[in-house]
Amino acid sequence: MAYDEELAERVRDVVGAAPDTAERKMFGGLAFLFGGHMGVAVSGGGGLMVRMAPAEAAALVDDISVMPMVMQGRELDGWLRVRAEAVEVEAELEVWVGRGARFARSLPPKEPKY
To answer: How is 22-79 classified by DSSP, letter by letter?
Structure first.
């Protein structure tokens, strides 16, 4: 399944044109990187994948709109899957993108690979 182009455009609007941001197609979706670290992605499975501190992520799981991210049968610490319905309102999208961006930017920047 291809990622939601409309949601990707909305995320672009939230992310803006900061010099430390980049986009990269990965895992069937579109990832947004901050300082070289993925913080949020528009998922090919729908909705968003958001990265944050594992303890913070665990506290936000409600098993309805926000679930732990699972890849190949394994739950990924610090990664959440946020259903598209949970980010239909712009303010909610901004909150989730902000969480992922803040966490990614808290990590030491990666050197760009050319």
So the answer is: EEEEETTEEEEEETTEEEEEE-TTSSEEEE--HHHHHHH--SSSEEEEEETTEEEEEE
CATH number at residue 23: 3.90.1150.30
Average pLDDT in the 27-51 region?
94
Domains held by the chain: number? 1
Where in the sequence is the domain holding 102, given as residue range(s)? 5-106
DSSP annotation of 81: E
pTM above 0.90, yes or no: yes
Residues 40, 49: contact at Cβ < 8 Å? yes
Torsion, Cα of 73, 79, 85, 90 (10° steps): -160
Classify 94 in phi/psi space as left (phi over 0), alpha (psi -120 to 50) or beta: alpha
| Predicted local distance difference test score (pLDDT) of residue 103 | 97
Q: DSSP readout, 6-28?
A: HHHHHHHHHHTT-TTEEEEEETT
Name the residue type at position 81: R
